[in-house]
């Protein structure tokens, strides 16, 4: 009898005990410009050692610290200088995710098995061109859209000249594909409806373009003489290719670093215009240390010119977190506010993409410029971008020409 009473008491209080634990996967939404964008978030730990992470395809954007006590959750994401504050009650999470001074409403419930697709999904895998885009870039009229598909499940990314949306994921239901994404910085919702003529009608919310876009296969676009996506290697240049690419800014220790310094003389130098606030820059920040470590001994130097918000210039905590996160060992300079790039770097011609990398040869002159950088969500296009970066570095390292600067 006592044992029965004890078990009854435990099960009576079990829901309250379980509700206090965050551990596990949650289905969440954020509200951007009035649109609810679904995504997933997962938690582990409890008390003063709780952790959480957003998903970017197979990658995680991890919290850097947090607490969960008495139903109150606080999670810090220092790589974006962002914080999630929420309350959890009866298995429901409600609160705000604040990033760059903007609070975004967030709502979540524990994840449950999703319903199976109703109907055979058409094949939309591969590369598409998105036509009729409204871009702030001076010559963009089309974007690339890369899709991977397994049955009704799809993933992919929209690739603009400055980088992509991160990995969007979703499935087919009721005659359309619904894909979404939020990894702590980028947010997007795509509703994709296949058309009888082989095109796709895409309604995009939460990203750089709001509204309907038509997707066509590259061969269809060429047959109809539609605009091609911008070539990231031709988008930006220099005003005078016969002059060295000049820079002179302080590093995080207050030391002045300039293109005329001895450490850069006779070296191949990648000058990276970037910002710690920029998710596409984070994608490149993960890649550049890899090639720096591989080619530095052969004469490669990299220098990051970071343009930040005023508060981050005063206290670059976010940037310091990124340097540690990605193991950056090359010079990272505080170049100024984001709005000051064209003033600080007048040799950059037609610059408007975060990030942008200038490839400087051993003679101190710019040999190539690459605008933007994709993420793994862009699939083959991501692999191609990395391969082209490496090929250009190897080509410039092979040149024996040296010159004083």
Can you give a write-up of this model?
A 9-stranded antiparallel sheet has the order 4-3-2-1-9-8-7-6-5, with no helix packed on it. Strands 10-11-12-14-15-16-17-18 form an 8-stranded antiparallel β-barrel. Helices cover 20% and strands 41% of the residues. It has 7 helices and 27 strands. The longest helix has 19 residues, at 380-398.
Short description:
20% of the residues lie in helices and 41% in strands. The chain is of the alpha+beta class and 405 residues long.
Helix and strand layout, with pairings?
Blueprint: H1 2-19, E1 24-32, E2 35-44, E3 51-56, E4 59-62, E5 65-69, E6 72-77, E7 82-89, E8 92-99, E9 102-110, E10 126-131, E11 142-150, E12 153-160, E13 163-164, E14 168-173, E15 176-182, E16 187-194, E17 200-205, E18 211-216, H2 218-223, E19 237-238, E20 248-251, E21 256-258, E22 268-274, H3 279-295, E23 300-308, H4 310-314, H5 317-326, E24 332-337, H6 341-344, E25 348-349, E26 356-360, E27 366-371, H7 380-398
Parallel strand pairs: 22-23, 23-24
Antiparallel strand pairs: 1-2, 1-9, 2-3, 3-4, 5-6, 6-7, 7-8, 8-9, 10-11, 10-18, 11-12, 12-13, 12-14, 14-15, 15-16, 16-17, 17-18, 19-25, 20-21, 20-24, 22-26, 26-27
Total strands: the figure is 27
What's the oligomerization state?
Answer: single chain
User: Can you tell me the number of structural domains?
Assistant: 3
Q: Quick one: biggest sheet?
A: 9 strands, antiparallel
Rounded to an integer in angstroms, the radius of gyration calculated over CA atoms is 24 Å
What's the CATH class label of the largest domain? Answer: Alpha Beta
What is the approximate shape? globular
Number of helices: 7
């Amino acid at each position: 009898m006592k044992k029965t009473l004890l078990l009854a008491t435990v099960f009576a209080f079990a829901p309250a005990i379980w509700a206090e634990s965050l551990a596990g996967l949650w289905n969440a939404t954020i509200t951007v410009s009035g649109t609810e964008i679904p995504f997933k978030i997962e938690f582990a730990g409890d008390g003063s050692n709780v952790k959480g992470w957003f998903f970017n395809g197979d990658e995680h954007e991890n919290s850097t610290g947090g607490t969960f006590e008495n139903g109150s959750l606080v999670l810090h994401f220092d790589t974006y200088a962002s914080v999630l504050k929420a309350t959890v009650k009866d298995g429901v999470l409600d609160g705000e995710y604040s990033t760059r001074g903007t609070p975004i409403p967030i709502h979540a419930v524990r994840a449950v098995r999703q319903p199976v697709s109703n109907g055979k999904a058409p094949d939309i895998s591969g590369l598409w061109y998105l036509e009729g885009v409204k871009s702030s870039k001076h010559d963009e009229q089309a974007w690339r859209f890369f899709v991977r598909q397994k049955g009704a499940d799809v993933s992919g990314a929209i690739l603009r000249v400055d980088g992509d949306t991160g990995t969007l994921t979703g499935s087919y239901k009721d005659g359309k594909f619904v894909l979404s994404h939020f990894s702590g910085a980028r947010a997007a919702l795509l509703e994709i409806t296949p058309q009888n003529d082989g095109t796709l009608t895409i309604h995009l919310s939460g990203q750089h373009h709001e509204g309907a876009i038509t997707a066509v296969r590259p061969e269809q676009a060429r047959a109809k003489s539609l605009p091609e996506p911008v070539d990231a290697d031709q988008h930006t240049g220099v005003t005078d290719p016969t002059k060295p690419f000049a820079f002179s800014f302080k590093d995080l220790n207050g030391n002045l670093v300039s293109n005329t310094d001895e450490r850069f003389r006779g070296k191949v130098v990648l000058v990276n215009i970037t910002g710690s606030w920029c998710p596409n820059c984070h994608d490149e920040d993960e890649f550049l240390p890899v090639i720096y470590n591989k080619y530095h001994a052969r004469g490669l130097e990299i220098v990051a010119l970071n343009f930040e918000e005023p508060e981050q210039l005063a206290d670059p905590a976010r940037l310091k977190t990124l340097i540690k996160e990605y193991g950056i060992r090359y010079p990272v300079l505080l170049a100024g506010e984001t709005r000051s790039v064209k003033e600080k770097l007048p040799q950059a011609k037609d610059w408007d993409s975060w990030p942008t990398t200038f490839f400087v040869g051993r003679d101190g002159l710019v040999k190539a410029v690459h605008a933007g950088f994709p993420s793994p969500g862009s699939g083959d296009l991501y692999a191609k971008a990395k391969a082209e970066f490496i090929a250009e570095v190897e080509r410039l390292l092979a040149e024996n020409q040296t010159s004083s600067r």
